[in-house]
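Interim report, section 4.2 (structural modelling).
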Amino acid sequence: MNTVSALRFDASKDDRIVAGVCGGLAATLGVDATLVRLVFALLALAGGAGILLYLALIVYTDGRVAIGAPLVAAAAALLLLALGLSVIAVLGVSLIVAGLATILVQGGSIRPGGSLPVLGIVLLVAGAVIFLGRGGVSFSLVAPGSLIGALVLVIGPWVWQLVAERTERIRLEERAEVAARIHDSVLQTLALVQRHAGDPTRVAAVARRQERELRRWLYGGGFGSTATLSDALAEAATDVEELHGVRVELASAGDAPLDESVAQLVLAAREAMTNAAKFSGADEISVYEETTDRSVSVFVRDRGVGFDRSAVPADRRGLSESIEARMLRAGGAAAVTAVPGEGVEVELTLPRRPS
Amino acid sequence: MKRRVVLVDDHELFRAGVRGELGEGVEIVGEAGSVAEAVPLILELDPEVVLLDVHLGDGGGEAVIAGVAPERPGVKFLALSVSDAAEDVIGVIRAGARGYVTKTISSGDLADAVERVAAGDAVFSPRLAGFVLDAFREGARVGDDAELDVLTPREREVLQLIARGYRYKEIAARLHLSVKTVESHVSSVLRKLQLSSRHELTRWAHERRLI
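Predicted structure of the assembly:
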């Protein structure tokens, strides 16, 4: 619950002429003490309001707020009288102020479920009626301003609190999200790295997976969301790295949304990466994805042992079924260039429908 | 004759790693961890190549290049980063770096890259090649200076092969060119990347960052 904090200040023991009130106030407000004394002197000329206020503040600094507050109110009333307001108008203003004070002190709120002190409302309305009704014609210009001021006083703190709470909530939610991500990924990875410190291949794979995930989160579509071709390829590359302990170097130019046929292309690319990882003997696989207005292409290349197509047993279906036939079904094509001793490159292409 | 190299990276651990890996082939004459340290050090040592992290605590690799290049035009910069952001990569290249490689590069490839940059060539990692192809996309609007704003078909071919993981020698064999010619194509792309005023380049890098 928010409380309206009063201005805290203590009477100054060093900078004092009478009781040190002006010095203390000046120190609190950060202004020159002479200026404060001048204001009090001017107020003293206004029907003695300054003197009364000074006494009120002496009491206040002693900790006796209950006595000090009415004294301050009386000083304010004297000031208003001295400025030429009628007694009725001063009474009205006093009631309005007392009403507002009551509402603020009792922690009133117009939010749903918040309480509105009845006494405060009654005082406020009574004050407004007296002030507007019999305060005199000369205040007809002041009256709307006073009402708006009163509203601002009541609603202001509430609006401020609402905005502050909202900002804080958003900040906390963001923080919680970041913390959850860090926990799920980075901390787990660090734990894995410590456990497998003796296994460089595994450590490297885990570290690279983590790097990719963080990178995707920082610069890409975010964690876990594979809405585009390059995100999906990055995910496939990560899986292959982790399963087979190779490095996959991924480059891309352009990107495409992940529709049904593009998803098939990614599956074919993944199969090509897996083949390279399992059979090529190379420790690095290069994957390049290029999207233009007309087509999507993915190249998967290794610099490994290569193979002779005619020597591949007919029951090995990885290449013909998972890559070539899949690409044909998706409306694209696959081309495999294999040279024994120099490595393999699989080129997957998919025409794009004009959108 | 070993190449004289200065290493600029704000991670002590990473510097130690590179020093260990490159120890044989090059001579690491100095190390710096910030822009403020790097600029006077490079001016004093006048190395052949500076391996430059894109991100430093007190500014980017761009700031180091800006501080050194006017007084020591002979010093070559090779950007070395984990950063994926096209904006950063293109930024450091446009500031004057002769190439960009990712920190996951193998030590052999890194030694090659240093040698290549020292010899005045450009070094494009597959990832940078992809960025450049994307930025100079076919059919994209051409700016004021047509020659600088588009890649020739040959340059495009060379870049595509780099992106696909081919080395210069393999590219030369495949395209029936000499390695020198491949190198000159890459240098020409680097020049376009640095000098092209096409605002698509900036906008593109910015968009990449935002996606």
